[in-house]
Amino acid sequence: MNETLPQCPECSSVHAYEMGALLVCPECGHEWAAGAGEVGDAGAVPDGAIRDSVGNVLADGDDVTVVKALKVKGHPTGIKAGTKVRGIRLNPGGPDGHDIDCKIDGFGAMQLKSSVVRKA
């Protein structure tokens, strides 16, 4: 490998490796986009862009997948990892970091954090 890979943004480990288009940290398991924060084919990414758990930029109308199980107040079961959410709306000023408005089948309208979803 000619280029040096960046440190993990979660734990600062220097042992990151490439897996397809993602970089992976073997110590904490964090995954992120190899070119996160760089200029892509479509042009510059806005600084205030909302990104998913692996660094992909999200936009209104995108479909996402929940990456970890979530507890829901007032509901006997939570949202399982792998649940598909269609047609999200971004809400950058959402309460407590909940920057995605969506509807989930069986749960109704709710807000999610971008850190618990991955672009589908």
TrEMBL record:
<dbReference type="InterPro" id="IPR013987">
    <property type="entry name" value="YjdM_N"/>
</dbReference>
<dbReference type="InterPro" id="IPR004624">
    <property type="entry name" value="YjdM"/>
</dbReference>
<feature type="domain" description="Protein YjdM N-terminal">
    <location>
        <begin position="4"/>
        <end position="33"/>
    </location>
</feature>
<dbReference type="Pfam" id="PF08274">
    <property type="entry name" value="Zn_Ribbon_YjdM"/>
</dbReference>
<feature type="domain" description="Protein YjdM C-terminal">
    <location>
        <begin position="50"/>
        <end position="120"/>
    </location>
</feature>
<dbReference type="Pfam" id="PF03831">
    <property type="entry name" value="YjdM"/>
</dbReference>
<protein>
    <submittedName>
        <fullName>Zinc ribbon domain-containing protein YjdM</fullName>
    </submittedName>
</protein>
<dbReference type="InterPro" id="IPR013988">
    <property type="entry name" value="YjdM_C"/>
</dbReference>
<comment type="similarity">
    <text>Belongs to the YjdM family.</text>
</comment>
